[in-house]
Structure formats: structure tokens, C-alpha cells
Design a protein that fits this description.
Blueprint lengths: L2 E4 L1 H18 L2 H20 L18 E5 L2 E8 L4 E9 L9
Parallel strand pairs: 1-4
Antiparallel strand pairs: 2-3, 3-4
């Protein structure tokens, strides 16, 4: 099992998504289910970090990012094999052009 860390940027994005669902749609149960789905996805990649595909960007990045899909959202992460550590770096809505935001 790999260790998992969530970058402060990704944690803020996740929190903003949950708050948005509660505030804009008044759906706290849906927000809780989404948050649970994030946790389930994160647990899955801790056991199988290479299960998600590598993201093919148009411009080179300094790390190899992988894409975990959680409902309508994409969590980008990378793997540090030496430390057996997964870092969740960003969480975006699937409709966003996330390559240009990295």
C-alpha cells in the first residue's frame, strides 16, 4: 500500500467543489456522497497506483501525471516510487481545460 498525500491546492479545490454543491444546489447529501467517492478513489489508487492512465499533455510537464476519474471530476496525481508515495496535485471538473491550468 502506498502512502497518500493531498497537495494543499488539491485539498482547496476539493473543499471548494463540496462547498459549491452545498451552496449552489442545496444538496449536502450529494456533496457528502461525492466526498466519499473521492475517498474511495484515493483508497483504490493507494493499492493500485498504476491503474489509472498517464495523462498525455500537448506540452511536456516535469512529472508524469495520472488521471483518476471521480464522477464528473478528474484528480491528477503522480507517483514517487522511491518513497512509495502518491501525491494528489489537482482536482478539476471534467469540462475544464486542466492542461492550461498546470
Amino acid at each position: 500500500m502506498y502512502k497518500l498525500e493531498i497537495d494543499p491546492i488539491a485539498q482547496s479545490q476539493r473543499s471548494d467543489i463540496i462547498k459549491f454543491i452545498i451552496r449552489e444546489y442545496d444538496m449536502p447529501n450529494a456533496a457528502a456522497r461525492l466526498d466519499s467517492a473521492f475517498n474511495k478513489g484515493f483508497k483504490k489508487i493507494q493499492g493500485q497506483p498504476y491503474i489509472c492512465p498517464v495523462v498525455q499533455f500537448n506540452t511536456p510537464k516535469e512529472r508524469e501525471f495520472r488521471r483518476l476519474i471521480v464522477r464528473n471530476y478528474i484528480a491528477l496525481y503522480w507517483i514517487n516510487e522511491d518513497k512509495r508515495l502518491i501525491t494528489i496535485s489537482h482536482i478539476f471538473h471534467g469540462s475544464q481545460d486542466y492542461e492550461n491550468k498546470l
